[in-house]
Amino acid sequence: MDRSNHTVTEFILVGFTTDPLMQLILFVVFLGVYSVTVMGNIILIVLICKDSQLHTPMYFFIGNLAFLDFWYSSVYTPKILVTCISENKSISLAGCVAQFFFSAGLGYSECYLLATMAYDRYVAISNPLLYAQVMSNRLCIYLLICSYTGGFINAIILTSNTFTLDFCGDNVIDDFFCDVPPLVKLACDVKESYQAVLYFLLTSNVITPIVLIVASYLFIIAAILRIRSTQGRLKAFSTCSSHLISVTLYYGSILYIYSRPSSSYSLDRDKMVSTFYTVVFPMLNPMIYSLRNKDVKGALKKLLKLTPPEV
């Protein structure tokens, strides 16, 4: 392959397969997943906005998580659907930069938001009587703004450093979206300074939030152990179970993709993991936070006029 340096004006997204039948099947699958994602997250946001019983700090953050998941999935899935049914697999350089930037910004913001939600659970369990006072509207909005600000500032750093790399040879991205591993594979030479930027971003956006989450849960466990009744302990832990599942799935897949040296990237294997946290995970989150949640299910019944009138 010719590895000479040249200006790239567009990229070609290989996607998952070149088989027309499989592309059609994948189109139907991704369309179904995206439809459920959009519907699930919008319904969750509407329920939290409309039902006064859900106007608490916990549901404020869950609603914003649903908002993030809706837009996060929308960064990828529409282009995946087009790639599956269209002969034109190209994405312009500007389109690739935009997709890369917004995916990084929303993804990093979600990392910080999940850490914020862990702190919220700690306050709720350790100081239930002072919960509403400590987690005031002002503090909740401040933490949310910090999550978005930190996420998008780091996205600017990652995007600017990635697209100043020199790309060689062909412009074919062996993936379904513009991401670090496939773009690094196209680069002529990945300098140690770029690898250092990746590790810095991994530390600030993934490792640091994980440390905060682990610390919060250590304090949560200590608070739960101080509860005398077994039923009280189970009830307290149940308020954290959805968040724990969400954190494990999201951070697990991200760490797998981005914590390795660029030389060890395996694009075929990474595609499957990337699909999970970019497409499947945003669909699962509304289910994780609502299926076992009596408050959300009650709000849905009221919205659908299924609750019997009070006598």
TrEMBL record:
GO terms for molecular function: G protein-coupled receptor activity; olfactory receptor activity. InterPro entries: GPCR_Rhodpsn, GPCR_Rhodpsn_7TM, Olfact_rcpt. Residues 40-289 form the G-protein coupled receptors family 1 profile domain. Keywords: Cell membrane, G-protein coupled receptor, Membrane, Olfaction, Receptor, Sensory transduction, Transducer, Transmembrane, Transmembrane helix. The keyword Ribonucleoprotein does not apply. It is found in: Cell membrane; Membrane. GO terms for cellular component: plasma membrane. Coiled coil: none annotated. It is a multi-pass membrane protein. The chain crosses the membrane at residues 24-47, 59-77, 97-119, 139-157, 206-225, 237-259, 271-291. The keyword Transferase does not apply. Gene3D superfamilies: Rhodopsin 7-helix transmembrane proteins (1.20.1070.10). Belongs to the G-protein coupled receptor 1 family. This is Olfactory receptor. It comes from Orycteropus afer afer. The gene is LOC103208196.
